[in-house]
Amino acid sequence: MPSSHQAPPLLYAHPFSSYCQKVLVALYENGTPFEWRLLSPEHPRVLAEFAALWPIRRFPVLVDAGRAIPEASTIIEYLGLHHPGPVPLLPADPRAALEVRGMDRFFDNYISTPQQKIVFDSLRPEAGRDDRGVADARAMLDTAYAWLDQTMAGREWAAGDRFSLADCGAAPFLFYADWTHRIDPAFGNVVAYRARLLARPSFARAVDEARPYRAFFPLGAPDRD
Ligand SMILES: N[C@@H](CCC(=O)N[C@@H](CS)C(=O)NCC(=O)O)C(=O)O
Fold first, then answer.
1. What pTM was estimated for this model as a whole?
2. What are the residues facing 37 on neighbouring strands?
3. Which residue's C-alpha comes closest to atom 18 of ligand 1?
4. Which end of the chain is less crowded, N or C, counting CB atoms within 10 A of the terminal residue's CB?
5. How far apart are CA 193 and CA 174, in angstroms?
6. Is 173 helix (H, G, I), strand (E, B) or coil?
């Protein structure tokens, strides 16, 4: 348990980043105090600190008690251990926790990874684009939406009745995936789940905080959500 005099964790992040929103949802679910370290060209010192903390330079990174923790899922598990709040995001039962981690891997690997591929490719100069890779990413999203549609039949949240780590990632990943490669309305369970996630106050807050940055969405942010 954190002691009362302990400084709050620092979050090196950007509000428009999906993986940062994944962690923000966990922080907001539990009302966990933290300090922003905004990754922006206007704050070169913060960028330099971040690069020194995590040479891989993928964000977010949490710094707590002198320790740097990268990777959104690991950060959320860390918060549950060291800064627990009223909403446990991993069930205490290891079998139930395995289901949550399995769904968390699904959203990282088969929704977010292809979604990022399409966006990152669009940022490349024309000559360096990877058309085949983008087509594969779009096909993967279609396959992932179809699987998720079946899986979510009768489920409120990704791993069942309780909001969990898996929903923290599902929220921003489905949010941006729909902007990038529209979810077919025939996948009604996925569309309804995405809407439930958007109505969840923790994610609604993260979405609102990111609104000022929508013009930066490389594919053009649609006028919805
Ligand atoms: N595996 C990482 C992925 C983090 C990630 O991809 N973050 C993106 C922002 S959403 C990023 O750092 N992009 C900057 C870049 O690729 O240079 C995690 O789970 O946290």
1. 0.97
2. 12
3. 71
4. N
5. 9
6. helix
